[in-house]
Design goal:
Layout lengths: L1 E6 L2 E9 L5 E3 L3 E3 L3 H7 L1 H8 L5 H21 L1 H19 L51 H8 L5 H6 L1 E8 L3 E8 L9 E6 L12
Parallel strand pairs: 4-5
Antiparallel strand pairs: 1-2, 2-3, 5-6, 6-7
Helix pairs in contact: 1-2
Length: about 210
């Protein structure tokens, strides 16, 4: 949970926000899109709130605190889908770029022969299965049925140390906007698989809106 407070005309955030595999964001890693004056003018919902009577910056901070914590609660209720969406995006990038994760010892699985000439990570039957629910802009709030991508990745790619990869995800920043939350993260393995990965999660249906990596 977080608390938003006012300092020198700006909103500051104290606390933690859990985004599952995407990371645990803390204190100064978390921000609000704009300062007090701009939010009053630019966020329709805050403007409407101010039209119903006196609305101090502290009142707005309390409203933003409520929004942050409601968003975290909603995300946690659907964390499996959020995690699956994130892993799918990462794998899709790996596939598209042919990233050789096995060059990092931490991402290898002991006993697997990565020098076998027949080894081809990107020939595993992940893409050919046609995963349901992972198109651009698909909701992650349970309203659309989705295949369990993590389970399939673990089953079909035992040579990829998925737990080691998840452990090495490095949260960097997240921001509350009027209708979404954005995040940015990297990895601790010299950006082997994640380099400033960024997306915005819609607060209504939790869809990923603007994925970028590298």
């Amino acid at each position: 949970m977080v608390k938003v407070y006012v300092e020198d005309g700006k909103f500051k955030v104290k606390g933690t926000f859990d985004l599952g595999y995407i990371g645990l964001y803390k204190d100064d890693m978390i921000s609000v899109d704009s300062d007090c004056a701009n939010i009053r003018d630019e966020w329709d919902s805050i403007y409407e709130m101010s039209q119903n009577g006196e609305c101090t910056d502290e009142d707005i901070a309390a409203e933003l605190t409520k929004r942050f914590n409601e968003a975290e609660e909603k995300i946690q209720k659907n964390i499996r889908m959020i995690n699956n969406e994130f892993l799918y995006r990462i794998y899709d990038d790996m596939d598209g770029c042919g990233r050789e994760f096995w060059e990092r010892e931490e991402l290898r699985v002991p006993g697997f022969d990565y020098d076998d000439p027949d080894f081809n990570f990107y020939s595993i039957p992940l893409k050919s299965k046609g995963y349901t629910g992972y198109g651009i802009g698909e909701p992650n709030d349970g309203s659309v049925e989705k295949d369990d991508f993590e389970a399939s990745l673990r089953e079909n790619a035992p040579m990829f140390n998925l737990d080691g990869f998840i452990k090495g995800i490095k949260p960097e920043s997240m921001t509350l906007w009027e209708d979404c939350i954005s995040f940015q993260c990297s990895d601790i393995y010299d950006w082997a698989l994640i380099c400033a990965a960024y997306d915005r999660i819609d607060l209504e249906d939790l869809k990923f809106m603007d994925w970028h990596n590298y």
